[in-house]
Amino acid sequence: EAGVAQSPRYKIIEKRQSVAFWCNPISGHATLYWYQQILGQGPKLLIQFQNNGVVDDSQLPKDRFSAERLKGVDSTLKIQPAKLEDSAVYLCASSLGWGAGELFFGEGSRLTVL
Amino acid sequence: AQTVTQSQPEMSVQEAETVTLSCTYDTSESDYYLFWYKQPPSRQMILVIRQEAYKQQNATENRFSVNFQKAAKSFSLKISDSQLGDAAMYFCAYRGPNFGNEKLTFGTGTRLTIIP
Description:
heterodimer; A: mainly beta; 7-stranded mixed β-sheet; 48% strand; B: mainly beta; 12 strands; 0% helix
């Protein structure tokens, strides 16, 4: 079974530029999560989708971050314009979404903002 | 809001020895789930072990076991017979009781070093 796929693995940009990350969850997983992991910290939830609807985006900085999950499968997380403090690893995870309990994570996308 | 605290930023252990990683959490719920995840340098989070709060018996997975103290809101991970491959960041995580919502709240992690 294929795991959660993410791209790109690494991205370096200048501040005020834009960047987009892509995630393809495990087939059949209804719920998709984007987490931000700043160096030395635990992952923090940015946004949670159930199929193609948003369940929780309370910690998403909406003035610069946006995310979508078209057709309830792939998802894209965008940052525009980027700030220095956005340097982090962006982790995508998916789960069945009906209480089975386990989140499956991708390898993450490391963003460096200069 | 639920919080998860890991008070040991770094731990080290001799190969083949036993090490315990600490975790405390805060919640007003009576039913919930707790997890330990491992994150090696490849960055992919891997589930190590899970514990349902309604179960009194501590979970065990091969060399990994937990000490779940519900009243104290404590959830420690014991790794027996430590191996070089156990070197990684370990995160404690909490999940609430809401059916269908598997959102996790993570602690800040403990970096485990295995000394050959």
